[in-house]
Amino acid sequence: MNETNTTIVRDVVCGMDLTGLPDLMTGEWNGTNVSFCGEGCRQRFFENPSKFQGEPLIKLRAVEKVFHLGLVEVPVLRGFDINIWEGDFVSIIGASGSGKSTVLNLIGLLDRPTRGTIFYKGSDVAIFSDEERAEFRSKTFGFVFQQYNLIPWLTAYENATLPLIFANRASLVEKLENMSIRLGLKERLTHRPFELSGGEQQRTALLRALANDPAVILGDEPTGNLDSETGKNILNILIELNRNEKKTLIIVTHDASIAEMADEIITVKDGRMLRDHHLHRKIYTGA
After folding, report:
1. What is the DSSP string of 66-88?
2. 63 near 115, Cβ under 8 Å?
3. What phi-psi label fits residue 246: left (phi over 0), alpha (psi between -120 and 50 degrees) or beta?
C-alpha cells in the first residue's frame, strides 16, 4: 500500500494500522469519530482520553526484521506497529518464533530494524549510531532476562554496579544499596554467582537492571527459570515499580497469569500484532 496516496487510519491507543480493516470499533470524542481495533483499546481510550492525545513514549512504525541464515532470508517482523504509553504495563505474548522477543530487543535498542522506524518520545532512535545507542540504552532501559547473564568472577555487588560505571552515574550507588535491602540481597552482595541460589541470581540481575533508575523496564521471560514462589516475588517487585514509581514495564511472557495482570496484552503472530489484544483489569494482590 502506498502511504503517500492513502490516508492511514490508526488506532490511537495501540498504534495498529487500521486502514482497510473491517468491523472497527468507533466512538466520538470532542466531535471527532475515533476508530479502534477492538473493544479493549476503545475502553482504554474513553477511561482517560487525555492520556492518548500526546506522543506515545515508544512507538514502532512499519518495522520489519529479516535475519539471514547463510543465503536464506528469514523474515521475523513484517510491518509491525505498536504504541507504548508512559507508565503502562504491557505484556507481549505469542508462540515461539512469533517475533515477540525480537520486538523487545528492538524496543531496547539491542538490535536494529531491517526497515521501519522506532521512536522514543518522538525521536527516531533507530538511526542512532552505535555509540549513541549504547549511551541511550544505559540511561533509559533496565533489562531482565530469563538467563541471569551475571559475570561469574564478579561479586553480586560488582555485577549490579556495572551499569553505573558504564553510564558514569556513581551518584545512584546509595539508591542501589537501598534497593539491595528491599530485594533481600544485603547480606549476599559479596558472594559470586555460583554461591547464590537461582532466585538470588535473578534478584541480582534485577538489581543490576534497576541500578540506573531506568524509565523503562524490559523483561524477557524474567521468571521463566524460577520456582513459582520466587517468580511471584520477582513479579511483585516489577509490578510495584510500575504501579508506585510509574516505571513503564514491558514483559515478554508465555505465562497467561502474568499477561493478565498487564494494562494491555499485545499478541504477536507471524511477525504482526493481532487485533485480539485486550484490556485486563485484574487487581494484583500477590503476597
Report:
1. EEEETTEEEEEEEEEEEEE-TT-
2. yes
3. left
User: What are the C-alpha distances in Å from 274 to residues 52, 82, 93, 267?
Assistant: 20, 11, 10, 6
Could you report how far apart the first and last alpha carbons of the chain are, in Å? 50
Spatial distance between the Cα atoms of 252 and 263, rounded to a whole number of angstroms: 14
What CATH code is assigned to 86-112+127-273?
Answer: 3.40.50.300
Residues 6+ apart with CB under 8 A from 135: 167
Please give the grid coordinates belonging to residue 274.
493481532
3-state SS assignment for residue 213: coil
Average pLDDT, the chain: 88
* CA gap 129, 198 in Å, rounded: 36
Q: What is the pLDDT of residue 260?
A: 87
pLDDT tens digits along 90-107? 999 988 889 999 999 999
Place of cell 536494529: 112
How far apart are the C-alpha atoms of 247 and 37, rounded to whole Å?
26
pLDDT tens-digit map of 4-22:
456 788 999 999 999 989 9
- 157, three cell numbers: 555487588
- Structural domain spans, the chain: 1-54, 86-112+127-273
Give the pLDDT band of residue 248 (cuts 50, 70, 90): very high
pLDDT tens-digit readout, 155-186: 999 998 887 776 666 656 778 888 888 888 98
CB atoms within 10 A of CB 139: 15
Burial of 3 (0-12, 13-18, 19+ CB in 10 A): exposed
Q: What is the pLDDT of residue 26?
A: 94
The Cα–Cα gap between 82 and 99 comes to: 13
Which of 72, 79, 105 is CA-nearest to residue 1? 79
CA triple 237-102-40, angle to 5 deg: 65
